[in-house]
Amino acid sequence: MAKIKITQIKSVIDRSERQKRTMQALGLKKINHSVEVEATPSIIGMIRKVNHLVALESL
């Protein structure tokens, strides 16, 4: 599987609890925090739900 780098670019303050939990599940904790994950279908689905809060980069 391909790896992707996810960076949080916006705050989760005033977001729904579901979006906050999705960000936690992706491993993101604060603005400008980045994680590298495998591009599995479940991860892609989570990214689509919070795409307005994150930036993606292919590795």
UniProtKB/TrEMBL annotation:
PROSITE patterns: RIBOSOMAL_L30. It comes from Albibacterium profundi. It comes from the Bacteria. GO terms for cellular component: ribosome. SUPFAM superfamilies: Ribosomal protein L30p/L7e (SSF55129). InterPro entries: Ribo_uL30_ferredoxin-like_sf, Ribosomal_uL30_bac-type, Ribosomal_uL30_CS, Ribosomal_uL30_ferredoxin-like. This is Large ribosomal subunit protein uL30. HAMAP family: Ribosomal_uL30_B. Belongs to the universal ribosomal protein uL30 family. Part of the 50S ribosomal subunit. Residues 4-54 form the Large ribosomal subunit protein uL30-like ferredoxin-like fold domain. Keywords: Ribonucleoprotein, Ribosomal protein. Pfam families: Ribosomal_L30 (PF00327).
